[in-house]
Amino acid sequence: MENNPIIRRLRPADFETLTGRSSAPALVRPSRSYWQDAWGRLKANKRAIVSLFIIIGLLVFTFIGPLVWRVNPSLQDIDQISIAPGADRRAVIVEPFVAWDGISGITSSEDADLWLAEAPTTQSVRLKWRTVPGAEGYRIYRNIYEPQDEFSLGLPLITINNANLNYYEDRLDLSPQTYYYSVAEINDLGQLTGDYETVSADVQRVITVHEASQRNLVDDPSTLRPGDDVLLSWHPLGTDYLGRDMLARLMAGARVSLFIGLLAPLFFVAFGVLYGATSGFVGGRVDAMMMRFADFVVALPFLLFMILFQVVFGIGPGESGILPMLVALIILSWPATARLVRGQILQIREEAYVSAARLLGASSQYLILRHMIPNTLGVILVTLTFAVPAAIFTEAFLSFIGMGVAPPTASWGSMCNEGLKTMLTHPHELIFPAVMISITVLAFNLLGDGLRDALDAKMRSTE
Amino acid sequence: MKQEDPTAYTKAPGDRLTHAAGKQLAIYALAAVALLVAVMFVLNALAGLTSSAAGMSSMAVDVENNTITSYLREEPPQMDSMRASDAVSAIVMYHVMEGLLRFDADGELVGGVAERWEQDGTNVTFWLRDNARWSNGEPVTAHDFEFAWKHLLSPSVGSQYAFILYPILNAEKANNGEVSTDEVGVEAIDDFTLQVTLETPIAYFDQMVGYVTYLPVNEEFYHQTAGRYGADADQMIYNGPFMMTSWVHGASMQLVKNPYYWDADRIKLDGINFAHMTSDSNTLLNLFKDGQIAIADLTAEMLDEAMLRNWSLNQFMEGTVFYTEFNHRPERLTSNYNLRKALSLVHDSSELVNRVIKLPGYLPGESLFPNWIQGVEGPFREEYPVPNSPPDVELAREHLALALEELGLEELPPLVFLSSETPVARIQAEYYQEVFRRDLGIELLIDAQIFRQRLQKMTDGEFDLVGAGWGPDYNDPLTFADLFASWNLNNRGRYSNPALDAQVRIAQTSLDRKERLDAFGEIQRILLEDVVIMPDYERGYVYVTDPQVRGIVRHVFGSETDFTHAWIEPGE
Fold it and tell me: Which residue of A has its CA nearest to B422?
C-alpha cells in the first residue's frame, strides 16, 4: 500500500492552479487537405504507383514514340514478311530477276540425276534433272525436312505433264533456310511411280539493287555491286503478314485505342455527372422520369446500335468506323455514372451540414459548388479510371470483329484479328498487340482500384 | 494455475466456425462439380442420340462398314438440280445423280445415262441405256430429261443457271417468256432416245451436258413433292451412284450406295458421311488430326506441321481465275485507258502470289485464260503466249500523268477497291493499297463485302476496281471468253468493245477448232492491251487425304471432290 504511487502524501503544491501547459507532446499533425491525403494514400499503394508509371510510359510510347521511331506503320517490307523479332537481316545483292529458260547459267555438274542449276536464293531456286525414259511427267515437291519415303516428299509445287521438260524454277515464299526438293516420276494416270530424286538447297537471302534503293537500305545505291552484303531494314518487334513494322503499328494502334479510351469516358462521365446530379438534386417526379429514361438506355443493345450508327453516319467503304464508335460509346455508356452520382447527391442532400447551410440561407449554386461536387468528385474520378479500360477493351473488341478502323490503319484489336490467322506459325503477330491490350487494361484497372482506396474512404477495400 | 492465452480463447470458436463452413462449402462444391459432370454426360448422350452421326460411323475411315467421313464447306441451299448454282450443291449432286454424260476418274467425259450420242450440225441425239434406274426402281427415261430441261427454262422457276441451256433452240426465248417451253428444242422420241435441236451448231455442247443443270428429274415424283423437291433427303429420288439417307440441315448429310444404280459394281464405297459442314480450315485440320475426316484442305500456315507429320500432300488446280476488274462505265475514272495502264504497270502478280499470298498451289495470273485450257494441239497458253510485261514504275508514272491530263485533274481522288471478305482477298487488297500508294500516290479505299453484297455492288457498278473471280462452267475456253462481251450480264464493269464482241461471236458460232482458238487468242490480246482486267492468280489447293482412302479425285469439272472412284485400302 505504501508503494501505491497515487495515494501518497499530498503536498500544498498539488493544490496550485495549473499553468495550462501540458508537458506531453501534442497529438496533432499538420493539417492536410483531402487531396493531399488522397495522394499520400495513393503513394503508399505500390500497385497503383507502378500502374501510374506504366500509363505514363504508355502515353510516352504513344505520343513521343512515333517521333523517335519514324517508320511508316503501313509501309510493306515485302522482303521480310512475318519475321520474328531479332531475325537475321543480312542479304546479298544480285542481278534483277529474269525468268529462266531452263538452259542458261548451269553451274553444277551433271553427274547427278537432279541438281541445282544455280546457287539457290530467295529470288528463285532452279532445278534441273535428267529425264527418265518411260516417265509421263514429273511432280516437283519441296520439304523442309528430309523426305523419308515417296509418301513424305512434302509440298507438291507443280505437276509437269511433259516427259521432256527437265527444269523447274521455284519462287514460292522462299526464306533463307534449307529445303529438300524432290522430283518424282508420274505415270500416264498422274500417279506416282515411286521413283524420285531429292536434292537439298541452302537458300540465301538476296535483294536487287533496285529493291535496295526503293527501300532506302543504303545511302548510295549506285555503288552496290552483285555480291555485296546489305542489311535489310530493322524491325525490333518483327513484322506482320504484309511485312509491316510491328513496333510502328503498335504505336499507331495505341493512338486509336487511347483516343477512344480517353475521349469516350471523358464525355460520357461528364454527361453522366450532369444528368445524375440534376436528377438527384431536383428529385421528385423529375428524378423518377429521368432515371426511367436512364434504365431505358441501359437496355439498348450496344452492338446493334454500333451497326446502326455506322449506317446513319454513312460510313462508306474503306472509311474508319472510329467516330460512330465514339458516339455509340458516349450515348450508351453514361447511365452507370448518372446512377452513381445521383445516389451520392441524394445522400449528401440529406446530410445535416447541407440542412445547416440551407438554414443559413445558402443558395443552390453555393450548395452544389461547395458541398455536392467536392463530395462526389472522388466517386467520379474512380468511375472515370474504371471507364477507361472498359472503353479500350470495347474498341479492341469492335476492331477485332472488323467494325473499327479501316485498313491500313492499325488498332490493337484489328492487329489481334490479323495475328490470329498466323497464330501457330508467327505467334508474335498476336502476342504483341494482345499483351499491349492486357497491360493497358490492367494498369488502368489497378490505378482505378488505388484511386478508389485513396479517394473514397467508405468504399476502401480491407486488406 | 489456469493460465490461458486470451487470444487463443477468443479465436477458437471462430476457427471452428470457419472449419465447419469450409467443410460445408467443400461438400457443396464437390456436389456441384459432380452434378455438372453428370449433366454433361447426359447431354452428350442425348446429343449423340439426335445427332447426324447416329447410325453411321464418324471415324474418317470405317473399314468394317466400308464407309468414309468427310465434310461439306457449307450447307447446300437445296438439292434441286434445276436451281442449283453453287459448288457445294454440285459436289453432292454429282454423287447422288447422273446425267446423260459423266466425268470419269481422269476428268474425261464418258457416257452416263446415255449409252452413246451423236452430233450432226444442230441435231444432237442421245441413246439412253435401258438399265438406268431411279432409286424407286423406275427406269430413267428421255422424258425425265425433257421435263427437267423444259421445266427449268420456264420463267417461273427462276433458275440462275438456265443460261447454260441457251444453246438449245428457243431456250433463251422460253426463259425470257417469249415463247412457250413446248417450243424448246428438246424432244423424247421414245423412252430411250432424246433428240436435241440447237440454236446454232456449236462444238462444245457435250461439255455443257456434263453440268449439274442438265441432270434429269422424275416428273411424277417432282409433282408429288408439291414444290419441296430437293429440300430434304426424302423429297428427292436418285439415279446416281449414291442416295441420300439423311440430311440434318446445317449439320450433316449421309449418302449410302444406291443399289439401283446401273453401274453399281463400279462403286467401291458403301457410304459417305458428310458429318461436318464448315469451311474453317483450323477446325478441319483438327478434325483430320483426330481421324474424323478423310480429307482436308491446308492453308500455308499448316504446311510446316503437315511436313513434320510426314503427311502425303496433294495439289489440285481448282480451275478458277481471279483478276482485278476495272469499272468501265464512262462516269468512272477507271474508264480512262491511261489510268488503267498505269495501275497495271505497277501490278505484279508474281510478287503477289509468291511473296504476299504465299499459298501453295496458286499460280500467278497472266491472262483471263488459265493454264489448264487446251489449245489446238498443246496447252492454249503455249500456243498463244502472253507477252512478258514486267512492272515498270517510270512508265506507269508517265501514263498516270497522261491520265490526269486527260481527266483534267490535279490529283486523283481515292479509288474504291471492292473486295470480298476472305483472308486472301483482304491481304491482296491491303497489298494493292500499299503498292498503288507507294508507286503512284494513288489512294485505295477498301470496301470488303460478303459475297452476296459484293455481287450486288458489282452489278450496281459501285466500285472502281473489284477483285473478281470466275470458275469455268464447261470445258471450253468460251466459258471465260464471253465474260467481257458487251451483252454478258457477268461483265460487271460494263466493258464494251465491238472488236472483242466480234471475236466472241466467231468463237460461239464457228465449228473449226483453229478458227475458234485464234478468236480466243485475239480476245486474250484485246483484254491485255486494253487493260480490261489485271490477272491476279489461278487458285489451287493443297490437301491431305487419309492414307487408307485411295482414289479420291478432284476435278475442275464435275464434282470438285469426287468419292465415286475411291476405295478403302486398310493399313496394317
Answer: A421
